[in-house]
Known about the structure:
Elements: H1 12-25, H2 30-41, E1 46-49, H3 56-67, E2 71-75, H4 82-86, E3 87-92, E4 97-102, E5 109-113, H5 120-123, H6 127-132, E6 134-137, E7 140-143, E8 149-154, H7 167-170, E9 175-177, H8 184-192, H9 196-201, H10 212-221, H11 226-240, H12 251-267, H13 275-286, H14 301-311
Parallel strand pairs: 1-8, 1-9, 2-5, 5-8
Antiparallel strand pairs: 3-4, 6-7
Amino acid sequence: MNAQTQPADSLRGPLLAALASLNQILLGKDREVRLALACLLARGHLLIEDIPGVGKTTLAHALARVLGLSYQRIQFTSDLLPADVIGISVYDRASGRFRFNRGPVFAQLVMADEVNRATPKAQSALLEAMEERQVTVDGESHPLPEPFFIVATQNPSFQIGTFPLPESQVDRFLMRIELGYPAASHERALLRGRDRRDLLADLPAVLDPAAIPALQRRVTELHASDALLDYVQAIARASREGNRHQAGLSPRAVIGLLRAAQAWAFLHGHAGVLPEDLQAVLPSVVGHRLRPRDAADARGPVEVAAALMSSVPIP
């Protein structure tokens, strides 16, 4: 399958401008920024796991700024309640009826900060929102804004006061990424440059939020050949066979893998999805889903993806 470049697309121009703006804020993190944009284009949700202070919140806020999205940040703590996330019905004495007061989840980009510091009960408040893009309170459903994108941050499990996310919640995050420490040259630029919060305040929107659904539709229309679909299914089958993983990739994960590959291909101007596009997103899509059966198995997402790719021939 040979790489091809699609004709210039008016929808891609502002998207590439957004990428350039984000790279001015997150120095040296082009790949991670591209994965975050691909996650949004694939209509997924993003989980960022890393130590405090490496730019997780900055990335979420910068995405909202350059894409022109309404933004809400929810600080997850051990005493957070589901109503603090989705909202609550309050009795209105004047009308004699209950009125729903919307919670912070009603935004186009919601940052769930330190999501694993909340109890499972509070974490579950996001489940319906992430899958159905609506919340139900007192038997009434309330649609969420379009587009709707959750960026959750998670502290490493070895840190004090964390609750592990259940598998059902983890599977609803299309991608999981890490930012890591900056390279020495980029850290020096951070030391000499302006505070990133000041830069965020001056960051203009370069994309109309109304254009994002059109971009997402364009991504799903990007051609994936039968050979490419065979490759996706072979990877899924390899994840389910043998005894290395507690469970293989779910159908939702397999569909998400294809969508992520389509989004990556669109970002790079490909006329169709290439095996290289699939391989580029594979670690971020499968790394948090495939848990080793052996507790002593300490492979990271890159190693897990590499093992899958080595067991499946490229079409």
